Amino acid sequence: MCSSEHTWFKSFEPYQLVTDKSSPNYQLIHSDLIEVGSDGLLHTTDGKDYVGVAMGTVYGKAGDRFIIKFDNGNETRVIMLDEKGKGTVNNCYHASDGSMIEVLVDKDLFKEAYPIAYHKGDLNYSDKFNGRIVGIEKVIE
User: Fold this and answer.
1) 113-122: long-range contacts at Cβ-Cβ below 8 A with a sequence spacing of 24 or more?
2) What is the pLDDT of residues 20-55, one digit of tens each?
3) What per-residue confidence (pLDDT) applies to 73?
4) How far apart are CA 124 and CA 47, in angstroms?
5) pTM for the full model?
6) Are the beta carbons of 78 and 41 closer than 8 angstroms?
7) pLDDT for the residue numbered 42
8) Of 21, 10, 27, which Cα lies nearest the Cα of 104?
9) CB-side exposure of 136: number of CA atoms within 13 Å?
10) Parallel, antiparallel or unpaired: strands 75-83 and 51-55
11) Which of 76, 84, 32, 82 is nearest to 50 (CA)?
12) How far apart are CA 40 and CA 106, in angstroms?
């Protein structure tokens, strides 16, 4: 796992900002494998309930799956749907806020489901991403 002092901070990005229709990221987000949940998060439809995120390319590419481990013992399954963009350090975390993962959301539904996380701009204030990241394991299927 690459290092950031801010492993507790998990930003979010409206999935509608992924606009390049020719990119594998856009195609995956708009495929039958991904749906927007009532919580505003993007979930896989394969019954495994992976949550869609953007991560640095040091971890992999669109479609790769991971288990995020937190210091409180919780784990969340994620699927990489986008790459963290400009401003990443070593293709790992964002320079301005230190976030290693950025959760893709439907802004309106997310705001209703997680009002505190929405207003703070941080998914640390949610049930699925609470805690400091202590490990990221790639899932091999």
Assistant:
1) 113/38, 113/39, 113/40, 113/41, 114/39, 114/40, 117/12, 118/12, 121/11, 121/12, 122/9, 122/10, 122/11
2) 999 999 999 999 999 999 999 999 999 999 999 998
3) 96
4) 25
5) 0.90
6) no
7) 98
8) 10
9) 24
10) parallel
11) 76
12) 5
